[in-house]
Amino acid sequence: MQGKKTSPLRRALLWTGLAGGIALALFTAQIARAAETVKLGVMGGAEEEIAEVAKTVAAGKGLTVELITFSDYNIPNAALDAGDLDANAFQHKPYLDAQIAARGYRIVPIGYTIVEPMGLYSRKIKSITDLKPGSTIGIPNDPSNGGRALNLLAANGLLTLADGKGLSPSILDIAGNPKNLKLVELEAAQLPRALEDFDAAIINTDYAVNSGLTPSKDALIQEPREGNPYGNFVAAREKDKGRPALKTLVESYQSKEVRDFMESRFKGAILPAW
Predict the structure, then answer these.
(1) What is the spatial distance between Cα 199 and Cα 125, in angstroms, rounded to a whole number?
(2) Burial class of residue 17, CB neighbours in 10 A (0-12, 13-18, 19+)
(3) How far apart are CA 101 and CA 104, in angstroms?
(4) pLDDT, tens only, 53-82
(5) Domains in the chain, CATH or no CATH each
């Protein structure tokens, strides 16, 4: 027994309905992608300015970026780990490694952004040759940036460090201190405000720029620009590292618009790390 035949009109209507359903599904998916938002944690000031440019670039790619600003290095990874952020962009690998070792975060780098060569600043001297025996030097009190400061002093002949300490030496690793410099550890964000209390202080570039210092003019010594191992990156929870929206975020940071902005705004104080 033959089944009932479908009329040409009915077939046309069925195909039209199917095609319409597919088109609606594709349109809905596009809207969902366009409406996707990521919460990005950044440090306020210069790094926030750069993130604003990346945010604009991301909007052109259909991604909304909500910036959450911080003033303390200790908070953005805790916020990311807790799920209050989708990503952050403020740290280098030695800092993240130290945080993971201390707190067990499952956070990974997913794409480089900027590098900010650290420098030594002073309100009292004009050159490191002016440092007298017993001079006080302020350095960051977190292990990674403190180690970074010690390496900068060692690279300029002011200290000698024990062999094999790499990027994260501590004060306990000082093997030689010919000028008997007194190193005072202080929270990184407080160093610009306390600069008058020291003969000199090593300050992270974002805090230096935010406090009105110009690294190219005011730094007595600086880390090298080329081959600097302290490049910052976008970081995400390990389980989210393949998320397409975060890939778009990284692409937005690594854009010509961001590169051009840094060149015109910061004049070499902050550089692309990609």
Answers:
(1) 7
(2) exposed
(3) 6
(4) 999 999 999 999 999 999 999 999 999 999
(5) 35-116+229-272 (3.40.190.10), 119-222 (3.40.190.10)
pTM above 0.90? no
CA nearest to 229, candidates 71, 87, 45, 97: 97
Q: Are 59 and 68 in contact (CB under 8 A)?
A: no
Convert 39-98 into a string of H (helix), E (strand) and C (coil): EEEEECCHHHHHHHHHHHHHHHCCCEEEEEEECCCCCHHHHHHCCCCCEEEEEEHHHHHH
Cα 171 to Cα 161: distance, rounded to the nearest angstrom: 9
Helix %, strand %, coil % for the chain, to 5?
45, 20, 35
Phi-psi region of 256 (alpha: psi -120 to 50; beta: other; left: phi over 0): alpha
DSSP state, 177? -
CB 155 within 8 A of CB 167: no
Q: Any residues with CB less than 8 A from the CB of 44 and at least 6 apart, and which? A: 69, 70, 71, 210
Reading the block at residue 74, the tokens are 């200790």
